[in-house]
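Human: Here is a favour to ask of a fellow structure person. Comparing notes only helps if you start from a blank page. Give me a protein, with the fold worked out from its sequence. Please set it down just below, with no commentary around it:

Assistant:
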Amino acid sequence: MMSKPVLNIHLAGPRGFCAGVERAISIVETALEKYGAPVYVRHEIVHNRFVVDSLRKKGAVFVEDLEGIPQHAHVIFSAHGVPKSIPEKANRKKLNHIDATCPLVTKVHIDAKRHNKNNKTVILVGHAGHPEVVGTLGQLSEGEILLIENKEQAENLQVPDENNLAFVTQTTLSVDDTKEIIAILKRRFPNIVAPFKEDICYATTNRQTAVKAISSECDAFIVIGAKNSSNSNRLAEVAKASGCPKSILIARASELDFNWLGNVKTLGVTAGASAPEILVQELIQTLSEEFEITLKELSQVSEKVHFSLPNTLLNKNS
């Protein structure tokens, strides 16, 4: 009987669920317990098919708009945040809405509105079309926030008043790429107002730091996460940029082509902030069928952040 080839797996830590994702999922589960099914959720509560399917089985109904939801039904807004027009529409349609927006995204919304109130032009660093960016742009009237996605746009950005600017950022960007864009903005517009505390969330920063710490030791890197998850995509990019020859983003172990692991002796593994640990363990189990596995947990920092549920769900009378 042939022995299996040895595969050393370095598990990056922290990985997987962040406090905002845990809160959003808990909001849906608590609403289902409190109000019964169905509970409607506008957009995927978090960008992970496994999570969405699990909640769907419990009675959550995922929709992309509010049309067709019966009056007085309960609807939850996803962790990514929504334009201000959405809760306004929910009120007109007499829907009971619950906001599961991550508090760190809400902080960006508040900052953008505060700068706008102070008559500053707001610049948003982010990816066009991402739900979080759509939600942040939608906090103000059209044209009141200028979106830039890269260094070239930062270099060429035209603004109405160079001395009356502020910027905010999407929370799930590449830490390094964002620093470069912000450096350009500060060079071009020395008086631009920065956030009191950087907008990129602690979980995004921690997960990228964990990947950076071990990438140069790995022959390949696997990130568990959804293709439409911004923070998961960034992790795969960070692994390559930090010295790992190749990296891949997959949603489940079943997507992995074992030929991709040819000549790989040491494999880095992590999970995006919306991917549950069960999918990491599923991957390890799948790999163990083909390889003799050695596991090494390499944790960079301990996360103790917790966000409480909305008062609506905590109040027994509501």
